[in-house]
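During the second year of the project, the team shifted from modelling isolated chains to modelling whole assemblies. The rationale, set out in the original proposal, was that interfaces cannot be judged from single-chain predictions alone. As a representative example for this report, we include one of the complexes processed in the last quarter. Its constituent sequences, exactly as entered into the pipeline, are reproduced here:
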Amino acid sequence: MNQDYIKADKWSIIEEGFDQENVKSSESIFSIGNGAMGQRANFEETYTGETFQGSYIAGVYYPDKTRVGWWKNGYPEYFAKVLNAPNWIGINIYINDVALDLATCKKVSGFRRELNMKGGIYTRCFQAVTSNNVEIDVIVKRFLSLDIDEVGAISYNVKVLKTDAKIVFEPYLDGGITNEDSNWDDKFWNITNITSANNRAFIEAHTMKTNFQTCTFMQASLHYNGKEVSPKPADRSESFVSIKFEQNVKANESVVLTKFGGYTVERNHPNKELTSVANLTLDKVSDLGFESLLEKQKASWASIWEMSDIVIEGDIKAQQGIRFNIFQLNQTYLGTDSRLNIGPKGFTGEKYGGSTYWDTEAYCIPFYMATKDDKVARKLLKYRYNHLEKAIANAKKLGFFNGAALYPMVTMNGEECHNEWEITFEEIHRNGAIAFAIHNYYRYTGDYSYIPEMGLEVLIGIARFWHQRVNFSEEKGKYVMLGVTGPNEYENNVHNNWYTNYLAKWCINYTLTQLDKVKSGYADDYHRIIGKTKLTDRECEKWKNVADEMYFPYSKKYGVFLQQDGFLDKDLVRVDELPKTERPINQKWSWDRILRSPYIKQADVLQGFYFFEEDFSLEDLEKHFDFYEPFTVHESSLSPCVHSIQAAKLGRMEQAYNFYLRTSRLDLDDYNKEVEEGLHITSMAGTWMSIVEGFGGMRVVDDKLSFKPQIPNQWKAYSFKVNFRDRIIKVHVTSENVSFQLIGSKEVSIRVNGKKVELFPDKLITV
Amino acid sequence: MNQDYIKADKWSIIEEGFDQENVKSSESIFSIGNGAMGQRANFEETYTGETFQGSYIAGVYYPDKTRVGWWKNGYPEYFAKVLNAPNWIGINIYINDVALDLATCKKVSGFRRELNMKGGIYTRCFQAVTSNNVEIDVIVKRFLSLDIDEVGAISYNVKVLKTDAKIVFEPYLDGGITNEDSNWDDKFWNITNITSANNRAFIEAHTMKTNFQTCTFMQASLHYNGKEVSPKPADRSESFVSIKFEQNVKANESVVLTKFGGYTVERNHPNKELTSVANLTLDKVSDLGFESLLEKQKASWASIWEMSDIVIEGDIKAQQGIRFNIFQLNQTYLGTDSRLNIGPKGFTGEKYGGSTYWDTEAYCIPFYMATKDDKVARKLLKYRYNHLEKAIANAKKLGFFNGAALYPMVTMNGEECHNEWEITFEEIHRNGAIAFAIHNYYRYTGDYSYIPEMGLEVLIGIARFWHQRVNFSEEKGKYVMLGVTGPNEYENNVHNNWYTNYLAKWCINYTLTQLDKVKSGYADDYHRIIGKTKLTDRECEKWKNVADEMYFPYSKKYGVFLQQDGFLDKDLVRVDELPKTERPINQKWSWDRILRSPYIKQADVLQGFYFFEEDFSLEDLEKHFDFYEPFTVHESSLSPCVHSIQAAKLGRMEQAYNFYLRTSRLDLDDYNKEVEEGLHITSMAGTWMSIVEGFGGMRVVDDKLSFKPQIPNQWKAYSFKVNFRDRIIKVHVTSENVSFQLIGSKEVSIRVNGKKVELFPDKLITV
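Output from the structure prediction step:
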């Protein structure tokens, strides 16, 4: 843990007291988003202290020129960067002609931020003595509407204490923004038009190179004593437009600026209509007004929580952690658009180009399947189908052929956004996760249609890749896979990473099985796909041979599969034998030392045991868990959740609970000393899995949901809901019993601790 | 081969005809240097075509901020970059007020460059019709004085044909230069003073951060019809100073500008005297005049050639190649200053930070020992001794301790100048080459004094590093070395690279032997060193244990040591089975594909067989050569020479000859399509070894020189001289016989084809 200033609360994230040191961290933690756009919790008014300004529009990116020390063949020349967009939240405030700036105020007291997750609203308040000695009391509310997702709303209330004061509000739009995370300080935006009329303003701008057309817009109104104050004519410069309101405010009276703003983008509207659509949107929200829009917001969040909330009794920090995770996932991605995906930092920062990692398939899809519905997960799968041609092109660039597909390590539009050879070219297990997600989707939803319609083509491209990526070792008499990086990125360029080899074998076999299934059940699709891919029986036989003759490193002595060739040559000192001063090794050790060590960043062999647990006995799991976990440093946000699930499965609840705490409060407590760069969105789905799959023991077995619920000692009870094939099942676990409630009209049978249990609509069953 | 425009000639490098496409390539090839400074063959006059401008001062560098895509712990924050220095060669020439510029002339004919290696002078001539229709005939001569190495001289002769013309010469100094190879476009130079008086000018400037003080200076004079033309007052700007001469020149008459210029640097003079020393230097050279200075230049080069020339009869391209190699080595480093070293591109380009690679120890020292004297090689060794503390600090940064030393991959001042983890942290065999050079120096020169005085401390630091770098593998019951890159950089992060393990074992054993020797023969030094290093017998025992129990990968099936663990798992397709279209693989293949392949960039196992050939039988060599050479793509400039030597040793003269041609004409024929970036200086010493050690079969065995001369079929004869322990032995080889001539006063016994031969002063012995 690196910080503990966030107050524990069941439904809110709260900061109290103004500390400039925390500003960037809080800007991340208090970020708001609505799936279509999002922002860091930057102050609306001027702030001259340390800040990281960021406003992001889903799907709007820039192809930044690659920067490396040493170029390696195969790197992308350009890759998509998350792009800071024109700022619409800004409101300069002048009090007796001096800009309000918390960094220069003589005194700031009662500073409080609250991100209320129940209603999706962010409130900030403070009292200040300005540098020119005016005392004020400020309350600012802000939210991004879930209902009208192109718009956000701000209510900025200033009360003047003790003396009268002249206050000028200058709400503005600013297109003169830069990216913190840019390689070459390129100019990213080209502003084509700035217009304003009355209390509205618009900046039309498109991104350079990618040419995404956008309109950033705002409307502002000022009320004093119930009366609307007229704006002055707008101020405009090359990249900036503002509206000014001036008001003499009497002591102990308040003035309120209401600002609506947001973006219209060409993904949703014709280019030429962006400004007119923006105008219509402003008409709509100003008709509604701030309070009504806020009521809708609360209702919309209530409906999200209705399905996705996890209630934990008796452990307020754990409760706050899981809700923060669920809240952030929903702020980032709502499943409404198959062109979008779940960025590693969502709308909370810029680090890492691109938006889509294997995290989506390995961690996020289960969350969205269970808390939304089939359609959302299907959109996430379709996203990859839409990128298949680019994955084939990517593989071709690296020397593969015949339609072999290598999905990028991270991407925005299907093209690779990474440039580190040991990751970009070698961390190829990501391809397997994409195939696994297809299996997982069908297993959970029972919807087979995706496979003949789209999935099988993806699977064929992936199987082809694995077939070409191995080579036959005369020495071993088996197929080997050289030069890979497994999920444990503390090993690079290893040979026969067990997880990758296992996944490759599984992908081939799964593809062959689906080919048979589609052939017999979906003849038209089968012929279409065979025609398109030119797949022959001979090729399938070759694949099969690779799968059958795949090499797996194994230690007879320890009775475990080895993470990779040569793992036992390492100096096998357990993590708990390392001095604390050496941890985290990714900050204390040189890279070569990390590579030579046995230390594991995140589940690697154990990731395979997670994905394919039905292939292994509990004894196998225990043996591998006991062998690998002691070498695992969990220095990836994706590590604790898988280990939490497996520890729970092994009945080690204390260990499972500790892993849970680490994953759920990673950002709130800033374990990795980097939260100011943004939040770890995708690992938040892992937190959800830790509870549902870990403590709840939920699995899908033979088309049925199965549970083996346990509860950490620290908790009184916990409950969650899952949507399984249009049945919503609410699970409530206490240390005494477990109850199940089926919400809906159709009965369903589940398994609890291996025994069949029938659930009937709206009837509570306690086990 | 990528180009063939260089004319074959025994003593000169010649280009005929003006082709803008060749300008950058020729700027590299026709570079001149004198060990203290050097320049690319940029035109003196304006040139608006594609050009790569470069002037370099030995030992003057800039700490450029590291640029990487992804930071790895242990990278240096800054590293030294070769630095383009203020330009003193420039002469703007205006003909009837229009700048002479070969890129815009209406016609250029008779263009010819000649770099005469015998005398160290570069001549360029051409006729041109200028853009304003004046016909001129130009001859420019330029050289950098070996005798007064702070100065160079230019004679710029313009003859006007057909019509009279007004010609303005504007010789200048320009401090407003940039680096092609800079990471962040930093400003590298700070100009502190610009002065001029009569026909002289001076720019005082220091490098930013490193604060190297320099004075760039010039003197110019114009002669027309035997009379000196008076200059106009100097023009000056912030970073530029020039002197103008104006002359109306009659048709068919010539005007000659003579310019002297160069640098004085604080490495050689007190800061405050740089300009006054420059003035004195100009006094000296202007007293001498251009022609006398040139005569001295020829005499100095004659004396270099007297010792170092290799004459090849019957193969003009081979002759030109070896002389070009010897010439460039001498232009780069003359062995006069132990603070300097042999940069990979010498004074011909900027690529690669730093100046010193393991190339110096592995390739260059033998050349300098044999063609100069002990002192030069000793200076190169001392350079590393002077950097020992920094090598210890470098190792410490990576987690080593107790005085373990890791010399940088490349350096200028002892600090690491590389930032690619698989090289910087893993290509650690460089440390062994530094120890090997100490052994090689003593073996060749018989001068043991270096070891007690300095070498032993270096050896202890290196032995300590190896001892800490291995770990004991319980699995193998041996010490293993994980995560290294061998000389074959087409493998990264491998385990138990045979060459590195062998070298480590050798280093430890050699250090232990020297400790004993110094203890018994140099007690004072021994106690000083033990006191300083705190070395204990217990530590030495641990080293010994590592050396004794080192693991070496070996294949029983093939009877060869394996390049690294798992080499036989590769798809062992020989290079000659690869389609030509796939070569060179470093341009045609993605990096991961190269890594997975069996292809070898340069000698790796065979480098060990080269260094330690006495440890292996000829049969062993043959077996390993036959196993590894077929997988070797020779895509490093350092590859063909070692293979040439070994092919010759195995009696495969045709193969040896082909390797020789490739190494000797690498830059002239631009095999690697990159000569425009600069020349490959260090590999040029490998070319010399190919003849002397390869064809000549020269070795030192038991304190005696030994030869096994052979001659390629393509040659009539060849001869070379070596300086061995103050005896100069001239070797002349024809297809019929070999003759030896001892130049000097003391007799010496050598071995020829295993038989002892006594050489007497100035007596020719034919075998």
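Chain B touches chain A through 46 residues (CB under 8 Å). The mean pLDDT of chain B is 95.
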